[in-house]
Structure formats: C-alpha cells, structure tokens
Amino acid sequence: MNERGASPGAGLDQLASFTIPGCHARGRVVRLGPVLDRILAAHDYPAPIQQLLAEALVLAALMGGLLKREGSQLTLQAQTSGGVVELLVCDYRDGELRGYVQHDPVRLAELGDEPSLSELFGDGHLAITFDLPATSQRYQGVVPLEGNSLSAAVEVYFAQSEQVPTLIRTATDAGARPNIAGGLLVQHLADGEEGRERLHVRADHPEWEHVAVLAHSIRPDELADASLPLEGIVWRLFHEEPEVRVQASVPLSRGCRCSTVHFEEVLARFPKKDRRDMRDENGIILVDCAFCSREFAIQD
Ligand SMILES: [Zn+2]
Q1: d(CA 128, CA 91)
Q2: Which of 122, 147, 168, 208 could make an S-S bridge to 83, C-beta 3.0–4.6 Å?
Q3: CA distance 165 to 213
Q4: Which pLDDT tens digit goes with each residue over 14-69?
Q5: What is the mean pLDDT of the segment spanning 208-216?
Q6: β partners of residue 250
C-alpha cells in the first residue's frame, strides 16, 4: 500500500490487482485517461456513445485483468438487431485495449442526452469471450442486456455463467481532460480457488457479504479521480481487513493488430474467386479496420 498521495495522473491507464485472503476475495481496479482519449479520437462519436464505449473499455480491462497467461484475450460484444446501437466491440489482450461502436446517429439524437441501456440496445445481448491460447480453451457466455448498465449485465454474466458472486462499479468523468473512466471489480472465490475453475457455491457466504458491503461504498468520484492512486482506492475500502495483497499496477495502452501484413494474411485465406470479386480494376482490395477507422489498400 504505497504511492498514497502520488501526483495527479499517477493512476491513469493502470490496472491494479488485489486479493483479500481472509475473505477468499479478489479484485481489480482500473482507471483510463489518455488511452481512452486515443481510442475515442479514432471516431467521431456523440457524447452518449463515448460514455458507453468508455464503460465497455473499463469492463474489458477489469475482466481482461483476470487473465493470467500471456496472449489471453477477453472480448466483449454487445449486439442487437434493430437497436439504435447495432454493435459494440471491445477487447483486451496483454494490457492492450481497443473498441468501437456502430450506431444510428439520427435515432440516437432522438433519445436525448442520457439514453437508457434499453433505449440504446432494445432487445440486445452481451457476449463475453475468454480466449486462452496457452491451453487452446475458449469460454463464452451470453446474457441479455438488461438492467441499468453494461456493468449490471456483466454482474449477471458472472453470477449465471460462472457462478462467481461479483460486484462491479464503473464511473466516467467526461468533463475531464483527458477523459477519465474508472472501475472496480470484486469477486468471491471458493476456498483455495485459483484461476477460473468453477465455484461450488455454498448456501450462504458471510465473508462475501462483508467484502461486498465494503466494496459497495466506493463512490463514482473516487473511481474517476485522477489524483487518487488505485492502491488508495483499495486502501480506503479494505484497510480494516487483516491482510490485503496489492500487486504492482499494469500499464494499459491502446493497441490494434491491424496492418497491411495482417490483412494480407486474412485475405489469403479467402478463395481466389472471392478475392477477385472484392478487388477493384487495379487489383486493390480495400479493407477497413473498424477499431481504428483506417482503410488499408491491399494489393491482391
Ligand atoms: Zn486497427
């Protein structure tokens, strides 16, 4: 628990992990700043969509931060047919975040400044995918996009798909420069559980209730306060516990895998006939990276 009182911005674009061994609980805290700005700068989104993407990126970092093995990826995809937001995609791999949103700007404008989740997505669903290449495993859970926020839907995912009691809070400060978004995830693990094995839920778990009550007291302004180090948040919530282990923060960055070479490899997997249909009179195939809003001209 060091770094308390560090300078403003010390906790930006960082992900911290902690465990509370006495309560069989673990947690992640994240705060995004310039990385969020860089991701948003690739697009020209209105405020409600920026807000939505900021929350999704925080969630991707919180969940991605649960992955231990290098090369593992967390993908969050919110989707609906006929909703104002048709698609939202975010992913996290080795500290790198990226994301984009497809929406209907005309219908969005009709919803006002603070549209609800159901106004944005209608009858949508959220797919959460953990890819673990080291063991060639892939877990996917899909939950309905219900409740007030994406965070609430992710809590439902952990409760239903993984049977892991989980509390998630997120907050954004869109007025700040850079934009700031923060989040806290705390979850209960079975006795001695490590990693992602399934939890055998007991009928009651007072130790979890205790942790949840403490975590519940986090305020949005604390999550989005650039001058409050992430360790400071853990300290404020859990300083009365006999033991809290906080690991060194991981720096987060904006990252995308798009490149000419990448798209050449992707296109090479298409049959020749399909590629012929895609290319223009000069033999060029134009490919978009939706994450970066960049177009690549690939010579076929
Ligand atoms: Zn890209």
Answers
A1: 10
A2: 122
A3: 13
A4: 999 999 999 999 999 999 999 999 999 999 999 999 999 999 999 999 999 999 88
A5: 94
A6: 15
State the average pLDDT for the chain. Answer: 90
Residue of 57, 76, 74, 77 lying closest to 66 (CA atoms)? 74
Q: How far, in Å, is the centroid of ligand 1 from the Cα of 265?
A: 15
Q: What amino acid occupies position 227?
A: S
- Report how far ligand 1's centroid is from the alpha carbon of 260 (Å): 10
Ligand 1: distance of its center to the CA of 256 in Å?
A: 5
CA of 137 to the centre of ligand 1 (A): 25
More confidently predicted of 2 and 74: 74
Dist. CA 292 → ligand 1 center (Å): 4
**What CA dihedral angle connects 60, 101, 133 and 21, to 10 degrees?**
10
Residue type, 240: E
Rounded to an integer, what distance in angstroms lies between the CA atom of residue 185 and that of residue 55? Answer: 13
Residue type (1 letter), 203? A
